[in-house]
Amino acid sequence: MQVTATVHVAILDPLPMFRRGVAESLSSLGHSVEEPADVEAWLREHPGGLVLLTLNVEEDLNRLTNLCSLRPRPLVMALPSADDISLGALAMRTGARSVIAREATVSALRRAVSATLEGEAVMPADVAGLLVAGKGGRAPRRSAPSAEQIVWLRELAEGRTVAGLALDTGYSERAMYRLLRALYQEIGVGSRLEAIVLAHENGWFEN
To answer: Which residues contact 1 (CB under 8 A, 6 or more apart)?
Structure first.
């Protein structure tokens, strides 16, 4: 689908080859594609721009949360792995306008970008199914975390490694991994990324 006006697009992904490929595919539609080091400053310069954000690690979800808290809320398209449906649902719940698998074809990416810019919300059918079912990619939470467990999640959200967390708490690294897995099971998530998003959603870091 050909656009009639230039739209500024930011690509946030760790791989230069991926960024270059996306830039080439979207530039052919008439978009101005950039790779800003400071995306918030870029958004101030280009209000109405679209941000393509790959979701791989905790820092990516933190960035998504921060971007979606800006006012006016920017257009963000999240690019999780095709294998992580729950992460796509979490991205939508966090505030992403659209979700498309990072492994999507060039034509699928172009269609999703054009639709998002036209005001539509685009997502894989499996992600939509999770949201419609009210699951949001998570199993029902059985219990709230303890104050100590919230501290663990906060440290992980701020970039602390499991090894560093183990050192701080006095556990072995292996024991820390076991404790974290048990915590994820308690709160009904399957990964560290989901646990951090759930903590933000429930305001556990605000106390």
So the answer is: 29, 110, 111, 114
